[in-house]
Amino acid sequence: MENLCEHLLLVKRFNPGHFEQFGPKLGSILMMILCYMDQPFLLKNPHLRARLAESLECLLPSHEVQGQPNNLGSYQRQALFQEHKHSLRIAEAILHVFVSIEETGQAVEFEQKFSYRRPMYDVIKYIWELDVFKTKLNELAQQAEREIESEQPPLFLRFLNLLINDSIFLLDEGLNYMKQIQEKEGEREGWISLPPTERAEAERGFQHMGQLARYHNLMGGETIGVMEMLTSSITAVVTHPTLADRLAAMLNYFLKTLTGPERKSFKVSNLEKYSFKPGEIVAQITQIYLHLEGSETFIKSISSDGRSYSPSLFSMTENVLIKVGRADLASALGNIASKVKVANTALVEEEELLADCPDEFLCPIMSIIMLDPVLLPSSKQIVDRSTIARHLLSDQSDPFNRAPLTMDMVEQDVQLKEKVKQWVEGKKNSK
User: Fold this and answer.
1) CA–CA separation, 174 vs 216, rounded Å?
2) pLDDT tens, residue order, the chain (431 aa)
3) How far apart are the C-alpha atoms of 416 and 223, rounded to whole Å?
């Protein structure tokens, strides 16, 4: 299997026209890839399934060798994705592998999973442009919304959760490296006085840091780009309470970091060298806001983010967008800013009104008022439903005693829910 994957990779790199010569035989290669890629019971090794996803990317019609004429075109590869009777399986298969990479184990470097996922992004971006695949991905998203509290979290929900996790890690790491590079550039002139050995070691460290910065910036850009693409059509499951707070907090944080005073910490002599494109990231994040502005839940999530949201967040963003030539996005952002400001004003008033909330009504994990309290069967702890749903996306265990736990096992505390409801209504009526 490994040899086959390596062979397809070499063909892509040096002679992609060879795929056209195979013609109808490409269907057999696709079936082999699909049969093993999303079937863990047939191929248990997640690394090999990831290599198969890379092999699928090798078959994309877009590959050409620079400087070599493409006399054969890409008809056969296009037909493979658009006309093969089992091609629609690609959508679900690629998501299966994307999610399963979390199971790579301790023997592989943490960053390895991002390298595995990079060719998957290329496949997702390609099939998204084909209407039948876009429809299929929308169907998977709708299924995830319907089954959001099923025993096993739906595939598309887990995919979105990992996409958010990856975005947070990659963008944050990239920014940290850019900050370190700025500091090292300031020290670099003084290295001339160091002994040759120390100077060489310092330079090696600086070059290595630059490579890491470029890698994380590239992968962070790819990840947030896929999020922007998906949210152009898929909104309901993305703005479900299970994901909305985390997504809004992530977007707010990076918007604040890249448009506020801290952005000066990332200025280096050559942004392009490190593939650092802060203006592009700000534009992509803004586009995600615009895609999701119709969701009241998402607007509330933006306004309730006490860590990064402030009334100046969107005005700072508008200034950056105008500087990078995206005045169109800046003007559209004003409508969201107004909605969020209204939501934030209402939230502040409500927090003041409910400030003396009894401890028994507060979630022990997040310290929020439990509007939908549920009992965890093993630890007997009562938490808010949205809180435990978010936790179980990443860890299917009771956070208090590590016992196995799934959403279908939690029990609604009807009596406490009614008490909370009556207390909240009483406070609001007494205004």
Assistant:
1) 5
2) 899 999 999 999 888 888 888 888 899 999 999 999 888 888 888 889 999 999 999 999 987 655 566 667 789 999 999 999 999 999 999 999 999 887 655 444 567 888 899 999 999 999 999 999 999 999 999 999 999 888 788 999 999 999 999 999 999 999 999 999 999 999 998 999 999 999 999 999 999 999 999 999 999 999 999 999 999 999 999 999 889 999 999 999 999 999 999 999 999 999 999 999 999 999 999 999 999 999 999 999 999 998 999 989 999 999 999 999 999 999 999 999 999 999 999 999 988 888 899 999 999 998 889 999 999 999 999 999 989 988 888 788 999 999 999 888 999 999 999 999 999 999 888 86
3) 41
Please report, for residues 122, 192, 198, 206, the alpha-carbon distance to residue 201 in angstroms, rounded to integers and kept in the order given.
37, 12, 5, 9
* Dist CA 154 CA 171 (whole Å): 26
> Would you say 314 and 338 are in contact if contact means Cβ atoms under 8 Å apart?
no
Number of helical (H) and strand (E) elements in the chain, helices listed first = 17, 3
Closest CA to 24 of 76, 92, 82: 76
- Point out which residues pair with 362 in neighbouring strands: 369
Q: For residues 9 and 15, what is the distance between their CA atoms, to the nearest angstrom?
A: 10
Question: How far apart are alpha carbons 62 and 126 in whole angstroms?
Answer: 9
DSSP string, 218-273: HHHHHHHHHHHHHHTT--TTTTSHHHHHHHHHHHHHHHHHHHSGGGGGG--S-TGG
Residue 49 in contact with residue 43, Cβ under 8 Å?
A: yes
**Which residue type does 375 have?**
L
* Amino acid in the structure at residue 381: Q
